Amino acid sequence: xxxxxxxxxxxxxxxxGMRRNAEASYKHREMRFPERNxxxxxxxxxxxxxxxxxxxxxxxxxxxxxVNTFHNPDIADxxxxxxxxxxxxxxxxxxxxxxxxxxxxxxxxxEIMGWIYASEGQAEQFKYSKExxxxxxxxxxxxxxxxxxxxxxxxKQERLNMEGK
Length: 165
Description:
The chain is 39% helix and 20% strand. By secondary structure, it is of the alpha+beta class. The strands form two sheets. A four-stranded mixed β-sheet has the order 1-5-4-2.
């Protein structure tokens, strides 16, 4: 699914990404993967924040604008983790749970590549052979995004039915 961010969306999500990087720098957080080029992490934080907004926009749900929300879903009130990459696979960590949504592209044009349950992506066949341990799942193994929309709508209806009883 193709999604284009507006100028205001780019600016707001860009601020969130810059804040994430600035706080990580000032708190001397250890990088999971080393920076190959100067400034690469700034760009990755910004593109990742854009990707989270892209998925929220496509689903029509509130993003949450999270900073320092480690081990919490990227999108408020869901179990969604959003991963941006320029690669043809999605990275999943051993401590990930819930649903991983993969996004590619560059500001302001993005494509949601699909989704996978983290537990499925943590299969031995996707395991990276070097430290740090993680898994790289090729996009061809992802479910189509429209099936996530249907799953979330079903869960929403179930929740509403439970609240109505």
